[in-house]
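Researcher: Let's do a round of design. I'm pasting the structure tokens now; please hold your answer until I've finished.
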């Protein structure tokens, strides 16, 4: 639960998330604007950690303890379960107050959800042998947050799928557009999707029920991202 406390005390993070959602809805995202700042922060916190919030590499190592050391897929399942618990709690707390609190809490929930999803995707990549210091891998992690749309975004910047062992020769040669352009493309789509989710919940989000709906929605979205991560980062053997 450390990510909840950390972000909810961070006025800058909340303000950036609120402005980014407004930018995404208006279609007026700009170079260096709130959308880019938010997604860059999500990427860096999710992959590299901050303060007491563990990095993707650290949680990957913990997931590989015991029998999972020689059974990578067991570690992957552990990672998905642990992050599913986190986003379920976040979605429940965000919707618990219904329409009264949802507009206030949703921007923070957006950041919380995607920080956890980013860390989960990054940790799955680490377990399967990928290097998170590689710029291309970091771009692919961000793209995986779009679930089924990830291949379309990657194709638009000249990156095809990683094919297992051949990925060793593919990574490290990212020659696409500047990272800021990738961040902007991913960020706009992510935030619009979350905006649609909030619009659907507003009509139903009475106190109590809103918490259940938020939890279920975030669990479902994380499951789609987890499936994409498994496909996007095949084992390097």
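Researcher: That's everything. Go ahead.
Model: Designed sequence:
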């Amino acid at each position: 639960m450390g990510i909840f406390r950390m972000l909810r005390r961070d006025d800058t993070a909340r303000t950036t998330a609120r402005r980014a959602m407004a930018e995404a809805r208006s279609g007026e995202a700009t170079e260096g604007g709130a959308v880019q700042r938010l997604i860059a922060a999500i990427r860096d916190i999710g992959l590299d950690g901050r303060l007491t919030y563990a990095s993707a590499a650290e949680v990957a190592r913990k997931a590989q303890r015991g029998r999972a050391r020689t059974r990578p897929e067991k570690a992957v399942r552990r990672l998905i379960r642990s992050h599913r618990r986190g986003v379920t709690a976040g979605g429940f707390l965000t919707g618990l107050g219904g329409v009264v609190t949802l507009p206030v809490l949703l921007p923070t929930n957006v950041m919380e959800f995607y920080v956890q999803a980013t860390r989960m995707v990054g940790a799955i990549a680490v377990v399967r042998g990928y290097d998170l210091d590689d710029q291309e891998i970091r771009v692919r992690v961000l793209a995986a947050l779009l679930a089924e749309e990830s291949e379309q975004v990657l194709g638009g910047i000249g990156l095809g799928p990683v094919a297992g062992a051949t990925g060793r020769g593919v990574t490290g040669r990212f020659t696409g557009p500047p990272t800021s352009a990738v961040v902007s493309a991913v960020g706009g789509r992510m935030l619009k999707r979350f905006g649609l989710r909030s619009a659907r919940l507003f009509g139903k989000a009475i106190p109590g029920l809103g918490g259940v709906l938020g939890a279920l929605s975030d669990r479902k979205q994380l499951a789609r991202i987890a499936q994409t991560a498994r496909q996007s980062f095949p084992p390097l053997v």
